[in-house]
Each structure stands twice: as structure tokens, then as C-alpha cells.
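User: C-alpha cells for this complex, please. No commentary.
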Amino acid sequence: MGLLSILRKLKSAPDQEVRILLLGLDNAGKTTLLKQLASEDISHITPTQGFNIKSVQSQGFKLNVWDIGGQRKIRPYWRNYFENTDVLIYVIDSADRKRFEETGQELAELLDEEKLSGVPVLIFANKQDLLTAAPASEIAEGLNLHTIRDRVWQIQSCSALTGEGVQDGMNWVCKNVNAKKK
Amino acid sequence: MRLKRFLLRYFPPGIILEYEKGGELKTKAIDLLELSPTTDVDLVVEEIQKAEPLITASRTQQVKQLILRLQEKIGQQDSRQFYLFKVLRAHILPLTNVAFNKSGSSFITGSYDRTCKVWDTASGEELHTLEGHRNVVYAIQFNNPYGDKIATGSFDKTCKLWSAETGKCYHTFRGHTAEIVCLAFNPQSTLIATGSMDTTAKLWDIQSGEEALTLSGHAAEIISLSFNTTGDRLITGSFDHTVSVWEIPSGRRIHTLIGHRGEISSAQFNWDCSLIATASMDKSCKLWDSLNGKCVATLTGHEDEVLDVTFDSTGQLVATASADGTARVYSASSRKCLAKLEGHEGEISKICFNAQGNRILTASSDKTSRLWNPHTGECLQVLKGHTDEIFSCAFNYEGNTIITGSKDNTCRIWR
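Assistant:
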């Protein structure tokens, strides 16, 4: 990758490129999701101390996906990456009910950010492969998603591990970025 | 005019004359860029004496001694093996760039954690944390050779000037409308030039803290800039595929180097300011005559984007680093490829010579840095240990210490 490639990905993307920001609490499954998108091996994933960037092709778009570490001490640095974001993907560990409040708060703060205003948001209710996972409808309700009125949004249940639901979510992304980019 | 004393400059080799003119103390340099251990010393002395009125017959013996000393220094062989001296768990997020001061006594690291840290090279102790930027600290420099100031350029669109000794911020330069991604002090340390994703470069007055000039004309992001040795020219490399040559301090654009068919990744002057080397995503590197702005050579061979280019300190060699995982060394005069550096298992994003010119250091996405013999292309050592890709690397002036900055949030000192 190198610093120069990072600068190139920093530019506001040309029409057929989409800049996607992948955020969420630590252990939500962002990096697994990123690797699933890029069809890479997901067996050895460690907590992200910084960021990962991958480009994937989907429906005629080049999706430049930025996966940013979610540990509490580095969350204040999420805003380093807000500039030129086309779509925000927010990942939630659906089985970690103890942290629903925390993740809801972080999401609410993101939606308040001026630099992300109007940016379409896809919420992945991840880890649906676990028996204890809350269904997407329950999470949507718990997080008061229906109160979001300043942008298009969608919640999609998925398992980054098995890949189920991931493509449906990305289809939504492509459809909605399309509207915004035109 | 009266000669007061001689100063010796090892790299690039030269003799500095300190003299008095009209009551004022002045200096001038005699560059000996082509000096080698086998050069005929008497011939060199004779030439200097012919060209330089300050060197009178009574001084020739002294000059000869100085040249012999330079030859001895140039001829020194160094087969040193580097070992990992320290891992600095410097930052809580990935590093960007690293840089030494001239003497190598301290160095700086920039990071995604919005800070720049100042380190003592000998002990690996942290001396200062420069805090205040609101986004990634990307471009960092000491005002070498003085080394008493540090400039930082950030994604927060500002540049800050700091005291290297106390860590105090002197000025915050505001005016760019996008990320600052490259910067340089002029050699006199009176100006800072910054290059930005907003397609402009700006010059800032260090004393007053005011903007001195805006250099507009590029059609895309500026990602590389550098001054020439005397400080009367600045070059800017852009994603618009061109390099501009600006006259300083007027800010007049005197040449636009047009010819590359891809984004520029780096642009550098050689020591005597006669040549400019440019690296491009079009897989080539070009050499340009800096006086007339004409392309004099296209250095080909790489199979993927050229990500960095550098001259050795005398300007005789050009080294290129590429996304194809190889580096190449070319002769600046014959433009022939002298060596191909093969071994990295990922793209090479940074390349530098030591001041002596007998070692090349490369940084790669394969998590290693490697040391090479520029003349044979032989890999002398693989510096292993980083757990993620290496973004930046540097030699100190002595050539006996290396620092590497990585995406793994650490900086490593090797010596």
C-alpha cells in the first residue's frame, strides 16, 4: 500500500469509485467483514491497531473500504477518516447485548458529525451465526433507528464469518451511493 | 578579500572557504563531487588554485592535506551489520514519516495519532510530544543543517512550526484548504514550503509566521516538493502528471516539466542543481535539465509504478523504488541501469542512500527494510521485525543508524 497509495485513496473519489468507511466497536467484526468482501482468509484476525484499506469491485463500482480500529482509546481518531466519505457502514455484534447501549451511543455521535451529514448509513447486524444474536428488528428498535430522518439508512442482518447477508448489504450500498453520486 | 579558514564537508565532498570581504564574514563552497580515493591530488589542487583566487600559492599545501583527508574518508570501507537496538512503541496509531536532524542526535516521527514525537537517537528516549494538530501528522522535517526547529504538516490543513529544543509551538500556518502532505525548509531556514491536496503550494515566513506566497498552477494534488541546494528554486510534483519549477522568492513559475503519462510520485534535485529526477506512476523515471526544463532521459525497466526516486549525495547515482518490488540504480551521467535490487516480496515505497553513497536502504510493504550495495545490487541485510508494512526509513548522516516507521505503530532503531 505505502503512504502514497493512501494519499491517492484520500482524494475525493471519481464517479465510479466509492469511499466507504467501516466503523463500529472493537470486536464487532469489521476486519472480518472487510476480508470477506475481498474474499480473503478470515481465520487469523487480530484486533486492528490502526486501519486496513481494501478495494473491491462491485456492480461497476470500485469500492475503497476503510476499516478503522474500534477500541475505545482509538475511537476519538475515527474523525481522521471522515473526509470525502460516500457511505458509512456501521457494524454491530448482535450477540453482545451488554454493549448495545455503548454502540448506540457511538452511532448517534457519528450521525451528528458535520462531515458525515447526509451520508447514507448501512448498519450490519453482524454475527447472526451465533444462537444468542439479537434479530435486526430488535436492534433497530433498541437503537431508535426509525428516528434517523436526515439520510437514507438500512439495517441488514449478516454473518461476516459465513458471508450470509453481506452481499445484500453491499447491493444496498451500491444502489444508494448511485443516487447520491448522480 | 581575505581567507580566514577552511571548513571540511565530507558528504558530498567539498571544502568551504570562510573569508572576509568588506568587514563581513562570508563563505563559499568548492564542491569536489567527483573526488575518489584514486584521484590525482596535485591535479585537483592545481585546478582549484586556477579557479579560486582565495587559494594562493601559500595555501596549496593546506588544501592538499584537506583533500587527502576527504579521500581517506571517502575510501573508508564499512561492512557494518545492523542490529535492532530499540523498538519504540511510539504511537497508538500507525506512523507516517520519520526524519533525522543533521547530526543524527535526534529524530522525529509523525503519526495518525495526530502527534509528532521527538526522540534522542542514542538512548531511544522520548524528548517531546508535539501536540496540537487535529488530524494525522503526515509531513515532518527538521530545519537542517541547523536542527533547532521542526515543521509538521497535517491532514488538518495546517502546518506548525516548533522549537526542537523545548517542543514549544511558534506558529500555526493556516490557509490551505485541504490536507498538507509535503513540506520543506529552504536551506537558509527562513522559509517553509508546504504542498497540499488543494493543488497549491505555499511559502511561509518563519520569522513573522505569515504566508509569503501561494504557488498556483497545478491542476491536481501536490504530493512532493523540494528546494535546490542554494534555495532559489523549488520543485513541486503533482498528480496532474507534471512537475513545476518555481523561482524563489519571486514565486514565478519558470518551467513545467511535461512528459510523464501518470501521476508524479516524487521529484528531486541533484546536489549541484543541474538535474531534476522525477518518478511517476507511468512506470518510468525521467531526468530533466533544470536550466531549460527539457527532458534529457527516461529511465525505464520497472514493470509497475515508480513510487520514489532519490539521488546520492554527490548526484552521480539515481535510485528508484517501484510497486513491482524491485529497486534500480542508474548512472546520472550515462543514464544506464547499473544495478537491479531484487528480493523484496512486496512493493517498495521508500528508497534512500546513506550520505556516503555506498549503501541503499529500502522500505517495503513486505514488513522488511533492506540494505543494498548500490554498485553490485547485492542485498547486504534484511531488517526484520516490524509486524506490518513499513512506510518510511532514514539513515543518519554518519550512516551508522537507521530508523524505520511502520503501520504497526512502532518505530525501530537499528545500529
